[in-house]
UniProtKB/TrEMBL annotation:
Recorded coiled-coil stretches: none
Gene Ontology MF annotations: ATP binding; MAP kinase kinase kinase activity
Domain Protein kinase as annotated: residue spans: 1-112
Protein family: Belongs to the protein kinase superfamily. STE Ser/Thr protein kinase family. MAP kinase kinase kinase subfamily.
Originating species: Amphimedon queenslandica
Domain of life: Eukaryota
Nucleotide-binding recorded as keyword: yes
Cytoplasm recorded as keyword: no
Protein name: Protein kinase domain-containing protein
Keywords annotated in UniProt: ATP-binding, Kinase, Nucleotide-binding, Serine/threonine-protein kinase, Transferase
InterPro entries with a match to the protein in the record: Kinase-like_dom_sf, Prot_kinase_dom, Ser-Thr/Tyr_kinase_cat_dom
Amino acid sequence: MVGTPYYLAPEVIEGKHSFECDVYSFAVTLWEMITRHKPTLDLNQEGQPHPYNVFRAIGKGARMPTIIGIPKFLWELVTKCWAQQPVDRLSFAEIVRKLKRVPYKFKNEPLLTR
């Protein structure tokens, strides 16, 4: 398996690859952009967790935490894109439609308060 653990969809661990895997990776990237944090999971370990432990946790449904201040619309977009089951994830066409509405929905509103 090749890739950065936090960005790999749960099904990749089982050797299954599809466009939905890219949607999952996009969700993690979007989370990182919105929160301005590196992906992390609380695995009750000191230091950086071993990639295998990250893969296992993601396979069991663990995701990056919500950060106070993320607009509900964007948090829902992220969570729909990193859904556990590939069929439950949005398509990129749906993502584009939703993102095109963001400037109108949050006009004059920062994504996160500092």
